[in-house]
Amino acid sequence: MPSTESRDIHEACGVFGVFAPERCDVASMAYYGLYALQHRGQESAGIVVNDDGVFAVHRDAGLVGEVFGRESLEALGQGSIVVGHVRYATTGAHRRRNAQPIVINHHKGHLALAHNGNLTNAYELRNALEEQGSIFHTTTDSEVIAYVIVQERLRTGSIEEAVYAAMGQIQGAYSLVISSPAKLIAARDPHGFRPLCMGKTDDGKIVFASESCALDAVGARFVRDIQPGEIVTVSQEGIKTDCRHCGSTSRNLCSFEFIYFARPDSVIDGTAVSTARQKAGALLSRQKPVEADVVIGVPDSGLDAAMGYAAASGIPYGIGFTKNKYMGRTFIAPTQQQREVGVNIKLNPVRSVVDGKRIVLIDDSMVRGTTSRGIIQLLRRAGAKEIHMRISAPPFVAPCYYGTDIDDERHLIANHHSVEEIARLIGVDSLEFLSMEHLGEMADCPFCTACFGGGYPTAVPVHGQKDRFEQKLPRNR
Ligand code: SF4
Fold first, then answer.
1. What is the distance between the alpha carbons of residues 126 and 130, in angstroms, rounded to a whole number?
2. Domains in the chain and their CATH numbers?
């Protein structure tokens, strides 16, 4: 749900899985679940149906609705386990071959794996695996996870023991949904960087998903979140949980899940996303009050925070922008020159709301500042008298290594400008970012705040992130 600046930031992926007690059309369930998770990744989509140990796979570049049609879903057939994935590339470029779930055929059976997050030691693990003779088919760190699990599977007595052993080697952010021939497994890294939850349908199907909105989409009741470090295994014998890795490190859910990534109708680690956003808005209004006529939010993820700000400050809430919902992949983006003369099709101010008004403008984040500057110009042209910008997150000052592409501090405006300088550069009357202290109050769970300068909860990679394995592949593959 892009707002202004956060259009520049992408989430790594969404994962989904179902274990059905009886063979049925699990592919359609994955299709609807992935549709609900589309905001977490728009570059590729894939589904693997497991029918009594026989895996059928369909995955490709594109949106869920582009990759899957009636024919491809029917071709996947029925089964009792399904794993699904939507992807945005944070490691490994946008290649059809990098679409997930990853499927590996090994000595003891098959494995399908869907991953959300980013490993911080993928480079070292992959080099070690290659030295032992592993041949990689993708440039993703997810394939590294799959190979480590398979290697452990050859040494251990069960897939869940292999996942447990692999979790002792892989570091960083990972929420995983894995199918073996007879089991469905969900696992979350001990920091709990990325969300992962479990639901159940009335007829006994167990569902795992990155966000609870995907459970709603398939008629499953939310049961609980997967705990950081937990491995949940579902089979015909029932549900087993293994928490030997739980509590081994600090808990660090990505705070940006609440600010921007997740859908507002999702509940993550006990907090409703829309409630957290409204709370951030309310905290901002107390942090730096201002006299104004109307509070407006930048669609979509700035809207909840704007409502929270308005309710807490007593300043009326207004719908300040109309967003064009019909811009697909074929839209030809305006050139810099066209932008300078005011071509802006995506967002247009509602003149009757902003003309002659003192405005509080709420957005969820600021990356380079260029998009904010464009929005401010649009509001000025529509007659805004004063613009007081409030950002419902602290300033970005450092890259993310845990599954988003906040990748280069040179591009982060707050890394090299003070708040006053940024206000001048983007042309607002005043500017305030949510404080780190208030960020911590937004939800009832311990956060990662590394990209806001809060310190990395793990060792960070020495090697670069995205595309670091690309050089290993010939061009045009
Ligand atoms: S560094 Fe920022 S975006 Fe990355 S996991 Fe931490 S809070 Fe989230």
1. 6
2. 5-252 (3.60.20.10), 275-324+338-443 (3.40.50.2020)
